[in-house]
Amino acid sequence: MGGALCLSVSAILVKLAGVDAATTAMLRCALAVLVLVPLAIGEQRRRGCLSRPGIGWAAIAGVALGIDYAAWTAAIYQVGAGISTVLINVQVIVLPLLALFIDREPIARRFLRALPLMLLGMSFVGGIWDVAALGMRTVTGTLLGLLAGLSYGAYLFLTRRAALDEPGRVIQPLTWATASAAVTTALLATFTGGPRLTGIGVRSWMLLIVLAVLGQVVAWLLVHHGSARLVPTTTAALLLVQPVLALALSAAVLSEHPTRLQILGAIIVIAAVAVANGLFRRRTEIQPGRTKPQPVHTDDAGITRFRDSTGPSPRRGDGPF
Question: Which of 17, 105, 132, 159 is disulfide-compatible with 207, CB 3.0–4.6 A?
Answer without folding.
Answer: 17
